[in-house]
């Protein structure tokens, strides 16, 4: 579904990604872990071209995103939902407005269809009663659940999560992870950058360790955590577990 | 007795200045002209200002629109680097020198073009103050830059700078007082005409000042109210 070939990204003289090759298949739950500054968030942001890669290609459902013209890029992004560390809800819109803006303005749905879809998703994330509230009236955990619902409204084929629980108070991490677990069980393809090792162990179909701009090691979770092969991963796991 | 005489003299002056020959109509008509010029100049300034701000901010954020940005910068430099009175004189005596044109229209153009430069910088600062994550959130949903700007960034930017924009309107109202230099009979000129026929400066000029003051204080109070309401909605 997503084919990454020789992906490199420089910021000025700083080389963040030093050649990443991987395939993400339909239905996979890929959890990306690694130290701060390792390039894991940059990798994720290259998948929907929020960052323009310096070289290499990202092929999503047959389209090379790195070379796609703007219009095509926007079309592709509709199929890739993204959830950010800091939510980025639209503060001037109600929760319902946050969910319905994109499908209505992009004419993917009529206003009624979008509202129905929003209701369905708000029930799913357990925040139907907040439909007419504004984002600043919600807690961090609630905001992130709304951000997930907003990303789901376009019926994406893949969901990208960029450290979705890192900005949350500890007591709110659980509700967000619970929702993500529920999505995983429903079979949607997910790529999750996180520091939550428990989530990786429990939900991932593959755990990917990015360090110093390359995929140092990847494996199914049980083997990954029980038998880390590279010394860097062993060192990293000994610190975080 | 003396006091009574003084009182009578004052009343006589009041009568001469405002009542005799319906002279107060100079102020009424002048005020009308001032308000008309201000209103339409504000509207023109907002349109120019928003367009220029969008060009400038788009260039800053994406590096596109190089040529438009170049002209926008020249516009901002020239307008903000020269006095509004000189701009007014140039527009009337140079640009429209050989054309018969309504002076009010000239005033609207001059003050609107002038105000646009200040509005542009206010709005640009508003756009730049919106969190960059908002652009990314819009992009990640498949919205183009233009759509993200229109539906996500500008509404927030507008709210952020609404008080500053309202203040710009108040400033503009006062700045139109130089319109008399192209013989436009605005409020200030109205007071000055009365002075020139009665040879009495105090009353007409103080009256003019009071009228400006009342309008400005009134508008400022409204802006203050607006600011408090916006703050409240921010706190949720």
Quick synopsis:
Chain A is an alpha/beta fold. Chain A has helices at 40-47, 70-78, 95-105, 111-124, 140-152, 170-186, 197-203, 221-226, 231-240, and strands at residues 2-11, 14-24, 29-33, 55-60, 63-64, 80-83, 158-162, 189-193, 206-211, 214-219.
Walkthrough of the structure:
The complex is a heterodimer of chains A (241) and B (236). Chain A has 241 residues and is of the alpha/beta class. Chain A has helices at 40-47, 70-78, 95-105, 111-124, 140-152, 170-186, 197-203, 221-226, 231-240, and strands at 2-11, 14-24, 29-33, 55-60, 63-64, 80-83, 158-162, 189-193, 206-211, 214-219. In chain A, the strands form 2 sheets. A 6-stranded mixed β-sheet of chain A has the order 6-7-8-3-9-10, with helices on both faces. In chain A, strand 4 (55-60) and strand 5 (63-64) form a beta hairpin. In chain A, helix 3 crosses helix 4 (111-124), helix 3 (95-105) packs parallel to helix 5 and helix 5 runs parallel beside helix 6 (170-186). Chain A is globular and about 55 Å long. The model of chain A has no long low-confidence stretch (mean pLDDT 95). Chain B is mainly alpha-helical and 236 residues long. Chain B has a single domain, classed as MetI-like (MetI-like fold, Orthogonal Bundle), CATH 1.10.3720. Chain B is 84% helix and 0% strand. Chain B is built from 9 helices and no strands. Chain B has helices spanning 2-19, 24-62, 66-81, 84-95, 103-129, 132-140, 145-175, 187-198, 202-235. The longest helix of chain B has 39 residues, at 24-62. The model of chain B has no long low-confidence stretch (mean pLDDT 93). The chains are: A alpha/beta (241), B mainly alpha (236). At the A-B interface, helix 2, strand 6 and helix 3 of A face helix 6 and helix 7 of B.
């Amino acid at each position: 579904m997503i084919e990454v070939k020789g992906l490199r990204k420089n910021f000025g003289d700083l080389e963040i990604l030093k050649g990443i090759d991987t395939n993400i298949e339909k239905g996979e739950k890929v959890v990306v872990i690694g130290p701060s500054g390792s390039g894991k968030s940059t990798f994720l942001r290259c998948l929907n071209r929020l960052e323009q890669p310096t070289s290499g290609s990202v092929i999503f459902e047959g389209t090379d995103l790195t070379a796609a013209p703007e219009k095509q890029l926007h079309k592709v992004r509709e199929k890739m939902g993204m959830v950010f560390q800091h939510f980025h809800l639209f503060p001037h819109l109600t929760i319902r407005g946050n969910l319905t803006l994109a499908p209505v303005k992009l004419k993917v749905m009529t206003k009624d269809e979008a509202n129905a879809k929003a209701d369905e998703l708000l029930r799913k994330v357990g925040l139907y009663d907040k439909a007419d509230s504004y984002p600043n009236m919600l807690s961090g955990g609630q905001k992130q659940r709304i951000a997930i619902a907003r990303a789901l409204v376009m019926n994406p084929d893949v969901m990208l999560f960029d450290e979705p629980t890192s900005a949350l108070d500890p007591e709110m991490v659980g509700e967000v992870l619970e929702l993500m677990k529920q999505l995983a069980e429903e079979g949607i393809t997910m790529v999750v950058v996180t520091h939550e090792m428990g989530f990786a162990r429990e939900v991932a179909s593959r755990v990917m360790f990015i360090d110093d701009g390359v995929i140092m090691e990847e494996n199914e979770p049980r083997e990954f955590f029980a038998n880390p092969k590279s010394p860097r991963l062993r060192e990293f796991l000994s610190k975080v577990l | 007795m003396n006091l009574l005489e003084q009182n009578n003299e004052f009343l006589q002056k009041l009568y001469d200045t405002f009542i005799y020959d319906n002279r107060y109509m100079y102020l009424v008509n002048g005020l009308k002209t001032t308000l008309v010029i201000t209103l339409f100049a504000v509207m023109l300034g907002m349109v120019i200002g928003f367009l220029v701000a969008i060009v400038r901010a788009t260039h800053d954020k994406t590096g596109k629109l190089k040529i438009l940005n170049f002209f926008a910068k020249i516009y901002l430099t020239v307008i903000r680097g020269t006095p509004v009175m000189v701009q007014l004189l140039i527009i009337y005596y140079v640009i429209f020198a050989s054309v018969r044109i309504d002076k009010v229209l000239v005033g609207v153009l001059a003050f609107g073009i002038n105000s646009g430069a200040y509005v542009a910088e206010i709005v640009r600062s508003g756009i730049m103050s919106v969190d960059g994550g908002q652009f990314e959130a819009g992009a990640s949903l498949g919205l183009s830059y233009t759509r993200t700007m229109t539906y996500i960034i500008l509404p927030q930017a507008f709210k952020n700078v609404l008080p500053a924009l309202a203040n710009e309107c108040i400033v503009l109202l006062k700045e139109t007082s130089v319109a008399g230099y192209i013989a436009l009979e605005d409020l200030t000129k109205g007071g000055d005409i009365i002075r020139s026929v009665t040879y009495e400066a105090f009353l007409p000029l103080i009256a003019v000042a009071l009228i400006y003051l009342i309008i400005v204080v009134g508008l400022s109070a409204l802006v203050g109210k607006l600011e408090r309401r916006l703050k409240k909605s921010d706190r949720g």
